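Page 42, continued from yesterday. The earlier attempt failed because a stray header line got pasted into the input along with the sequence. Redoing it now with the clean sequence only.
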Amino acid sequence: MIGSSIIEQTKIIWCSMNDPKRTDRGAIMNLANKITMARMMLIPLFILFFAEYPAWLIERSAFFEYIQAYGRYWALAIFILASATDKLDAMSPEDTTRLRIWVNC
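This time it went through. Structure tokens are written below.
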């Protein structure tokens, strides 16, 4: 059965993570995971700068007027930064933590 094989694979992964011989037990936030979290925090900023806003909001706020004029450039810079952090994250495939196993499933 498909469901039982998934459960067995999960048990194998979980048991290998709880192996007392492992030296990195409990290491959830290594550098790769911190980079991933930083990239996830860039998503709302990207949306803020990339979104279109109504004219009445742009007319009433200098901030949204600035975003309307230069937001696409800031969104591009954020996208490039997120792409660079993705490359940094992929450079250390030997790091395996609980969070990374969970995210990559």
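Notes: The mean pLDDT is 77.
Reminder to self: strip header lines before submitting.
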